[in-house]
Amino acid sequence: MIALFPVFLVYQQNIHLVLLQGLILPILIILSIAIALWYGLKIILKNTIKSALLSSFYTFLFFSYGHVFTIIESNFIQESLIPTHVILLISYTACVVLGTYCIVKTNQKLNDTTKIVNVMSIAAIVFVFFNIGIHDFENSYNSLQEENSNPIVLGNDLRNTPDIYYIIMDEYAPLRTLERYYDYDNSDFVKFLEEKGFYVTKNSHSNYAQTSTSLASTLNMKYLNYLSDIVGESKDHGILYQMLDNNLVMKSFKSAGYQIYSFDSGAWSTRSLNIADENLCSKNQNVDFRTFYQLKQTSILRSLDMFIKEPTSRIFHQEHRDRILCQFDEITKIKQGIEEPIFVFMHVLSPHDPFVFGPNGEEVDYEYTFGPTGEPVSLTSSEGIKAYRDQVTYVSKLLQQTIDKLIENSDSPPIIILQSDTGPSIDFADTTNEAHYIGRMSIINAYYFPDGKYDLLYHDITPVNSFRAVFDSQFQTNNGLLKDKLFFSTYEKLFTFIEITDSVIVR
Fold first, then answer.
1. Against a cut of 0.85, is the pTM above it?
2. Do 190 and 98 belong together in one domain?
């Protein structure tokens, strides 16, 4: 029980981000170690109760270390000649020695002590599950699953239905933003798209400021402001994950006979979509390194930060590079041997940080990209601008190669939508800053239709209307377009939407 408690506590504290399948491997590992420890002590001591108490005692000390460290660092330690880790390691060593001696040497029966420990362990687990249950009850949105129950009926003959590729480049800035805030000329890439026959918007913005809200809105072809009344000020992404898992766009294409393909982006919102027939590039789908990191930070392994910071940084760095390269490699191969039309959704976490590519795809020093937390490192303004420009340069090359292959290797011309979910964060801390609004909401937005008819498109179209335009112009439906509106919200107040349409869009 004590061995399981740290895992479920991490889940409870990060429930708005962590998927349940990410707990399976850490549970198995920790349980295996705990059982092995108990069995080894049992062999040595030849006493089942003492070995059980010692293994519980060691497990408690092991996983309490990080919490004690955080409390001390946050509340007590200002300046000290002796590092907190040193103080704690000495204290914990003393506890281990003293506790072991007392348990091993005692002649008293320990049945009552064992019962007390069991009761406390069960109570701790029950408490955590109670909190998880309350969260699940408060954030149960089953009614939303019924909203998209009726897919849109496509008007085209399925035999003449084009393949569709929906490519989302995370925080890819449009031409104007790159010129104004990054001193970067991306006109060659825009020219490439136009020469290929794309309609490239010149004044497009995302409807929402966060990835999950933006994509949920786009793929369900509606605004999300009604969620404020349902969710309140919660930052829980669960309702948005449900909307993505059951989104109207993919459901409609699937009902028309399309095969649905998605990619593991590395972001919780788009790691795996249940509606997809296959989720690609998901080598570590059930392994969440950040869960492991959180467990490591609660344990005595946190003390290793004094000496070693490289392994986790390197793991996250290489995993991120490999996933992005896998996405661009696999998207051009999906259609091989498939007769049915396909809908492909590829969310790429780039040029969003971490910055793992140089301008030609070369390796960037992993210590420059990820910290030991698994989060992107903080760069100075000038460093961040350069790193972002370099990554834009490289992913633009990958996009050109990919688009060339998708068009040239298709038996019939496909539909391609290239968008960013949001723009990059510019002075994100100041949510009233005009530059931030413009930078965060301005996106690249480009469309390739087989017939070249872009009558329903216009230069300030927003993503909520993207698939409305696709369905109406390419599949003879009659959804109509919504009035384009922009809503800002922060990560901490995800569903507190502030309309900023007039502040950002220059018509």
1. no
2. no
